[in-house]
Write a structure and sequence with these properties.
The chain is of the alpha+beta class. It has helices at residues 10-13, 55-59, 84-103, 114-124, 154-159, 164-176, 178-189, 196-215, 218-224, 231-234, 256-265, and strands spanning 21-30, 39-50, 66-78, 126-127, 132-133, 138-144. The strands form two sheets. The protein has a four-stranded antiparallel beta sheet with strand order 1-2-3-6. The two termini are 31 Å apart.
Amino acid sequence: MRANHQEIPETSLEGGKGLPFFAAGISLVIHPRNPMAPTVHANYRYFEISKEKTEESNKADEPGEIVAWWFGGGSDLTPSYLFEEDAIHFHATLKAACNKFTTDKGVDEAHGLYDPFKKWCDEYFFITHRKECRGIGGIFFDDLAVLPHPRLSAEANAVKPSTQEEIFSFIRHCGDAFVPSYLPILEKRVDSPFNEEHRRWQLLRRGRYVEFNLVYDRGTKFGLHTPGARIESILMSLPETARWEYMSDMGVEGSQEGDLMAVLRVPREWV
């Protein structure tokens, strides 16, 4: 599950033997039926691994010694039809939440955490075999712990939260931004008129959503390989209905669908 192993002692990885772990998180996915209302996803999680319990700790019913811990998460928007004002609102709300944490520490907005986490989101939710993003992004981060993160710049590492308390506080800032980032968009679009062609395009885009989640998403793959996992819970992020067409004629340049494809192929800076 963890991509960055720098805080796990080498001795813990020897022999390829698994270690006890603890995971906790919250995951939210909404797939509205109306094609004008975008899909939204948010996930915030905590993960730790520990040493095997000793005979003494078993007798005392004590947990094993924690070897490493980290936080991850983010929130992203996946519309079927592009409304620029919605994209701006979603990103601006997340940016305010991310940067409030660092401005409270005296760091100016230009050196906050939104920019690196927005870039990380665009890169993570990229469907390589389609050469397009799943949606119009948001924020994404993983493996936040004490040490500097290798994929962040020196400037970003200087302001990132580093203790469990700081990172949890940062995640609370981001989590609290979920409703105000999405609900105004949903209220505006949920009763918009649409036709069968709009619905057809929505289902095609949901096919792309399925492709990303089953082929690339680290959380899904981790869950499917976890012994005793509840498969229905792991696959709950998938839409109820999706569609695939051979060489579909939808999404051409100059159409509403093509407007969306343009920003999925080349992510934009919204705020």
